[in-house]
Amino acid sequence: MSQKSESRPLAKFAPALFLLTVSFIINYVDRGNISVAGPLIKRDFRLSDSELGILFAAFFCTYTAMQFVIGWLVDRFDASWILASGFLLWSLATAGTGFVRGFAFLLTVRFILGIGEAVALPCGSKILAENLPEHHRGFASGCVMSGLKWGNVIGTIGAGFLMADFGWRPIFIVVGLASLLWLPAWVKWMPRCDRRLSAVESGPRFGDILGQRSFWGTSAGHFATNYLFYFLLTWLPTYLVQERHLSIKSMAAVAGLCYGVDAISAISTGWLQDFAILRGYTPTLVRKSAMVIGFCMAAVGLIGCALAGANSYVPWLLAAGFGCGMTGPGLYTFPQTLAGSAAVGKWYGWQNGFANFAGITGPSLTGFVLQQTGKFFFPFAITAAICVGGALAWVFIVGRVEQVNWKSTTKLHTTTASVNA
Fold it and tell me: Using an 8 Å Cβ cutoff, are 154 and 24 in contact?
């Protein structure tokens, strides 16, 4: 097959891939603004470190719960329209954040934001699995996952500088309303699936997926990736201001640089994985190697950053960001291959649901440990240890990276039911 014909599916899908990436950028600008505004909100609402950690974690309560529902929905209905509906809800919730008064109302709007943003990752995984072959999924997944990171860059630098001059409330309102401009473009270019699936056509049942050892491996590995990513997303701005004594603008520049390295790492790692697979290396070797290298680099970078002096912590922080980026594409490519297009919604939805307990436990645990110790060393060390555990999960719990034979699983259930009858 020629290089041109191999690239045709990706070229045809390019407008939708671009808009998917943009939606993920917006998703993480809207999600991460609260972290950038954290020092300002802490002052305005007179919050303790533990209360700030609870605020960071509030989003993940509804976000995590919805993953177990969205995965089922995207395997039965058009994922493109589900994404559009969630996008509308989360944009309005972002704008509403700028109007709220009182800590309870701030928590409520974060809960609503979590419901809206829950659609993004399962929908994206389903759309890529349905429209692209294996040898393009690494690059496409890297693009989409880099959108998460670029959202952090844009949100941290742009919002950070603007919040320093204008306060945090106007930024939430403007960003939320401006995001709505994405919707008409998506309706025009989105991939369409007009067919509603029957129960028989919708692939394996949840019990079939939960019975796969690789599912628990990808869930554990994804948890570790999320713990690392959410630690950097939620607490890095506060760490830079509180422990490294940076101004809001200096914090935005340093954190934005870290997130930028993270984004470049994600997209380049995805492309390199596709390149290696096209050259004959197995997806098992390629995908797992990227996860191990990424986690190890992140763990070393975190410890180095925690121990480094005032003039030497930035390179270690960038190493942690690069390692985090390397783990990003695998969160999509593993379930796309293992589950197949018929079941990737349920597989990824539940995988992401279990993994996002890291969003609930991580920010709040960091706040609690920080309040008890007064230093960021132990939160950094805990995150590094979880990275090591994640590397082990991807290698030893996840099996060969090839599609599960769901037909044999379904046939086993049918035979068992007949015997019991």
Answer: no
Place of tokens 């470190």: 49
Question: What pTM did the predictor assign?
Answer: 0.78
Cβ atoms of residues 387 and 298 within 8 Å: yes
Rg, Å, the chain Cα set: 21
Q: Give the chain's domains with CATH numbers.
A: 15-191+202-413 (1.20.1250.20)
Contacts of 375 (CB under 8 A, 6+ apart): 243
The 3-state secondary structure of the chain, one letter per residue = CCHHHHHHHHHHHHHHHHHHHHHHHHHHHHHHHHHHCHHHHHHHHCCCHHHHHHHHHHHHHHHHHHHHHHHHHHHHCCHHHHHHHHHHHHHHHHHHHCCCCCHHHHHHHHHHHHHHHCCHHHHHHHHHHHHCCHHHHHHHHHHHHHHHHHHHHHHHHHHHHHHHHHCHHHHHHHHHHHHHHHHHHHHHHCCCCCCCCCCCCCCCCHHHHHCCHHHHHHHHHHHHHHHHHHHHHHHHHHHHHHCCCCCHHHHHHHHHHHHHHHHHHHHHHHHHHHHHHHCCCCHHHHHHHHHHHHHHHHHHHHHHHHHCCCCCHHHHHHHHHHHHHHHCCHHHHHHHHHHCCCCHHHHHHHHHHHHCHHHHHHHHHHHHHHHHHCCCHHHHHHHHHHHHHHHHHHHHHCCCCCCCCHHHHHHHHHHHHHHHC
Is residue 335 within 8 Å of 141, Cβ to Cβ? no
| Lookup result for tokens 């994405």 | 182
For range 76-81, the mean pLDDT:
90
d(Cα 146, Cα 266) in Å, to the nearest integer? 5
pLDDT at position 194, please?
Answer: 53
CB-based burial label for 373 (10 Å; 0-12, 13-18, 19+): exposed
Asked if pLDDT for residue 320 goes beyond 90, the answer is yes
Bigger pLDDT: 234 vs 321? 321
Phi, then psi, of 385 in degrees rounded to 5: -65, -40
Q: What is the pLDDT of residue 408?
A: 58
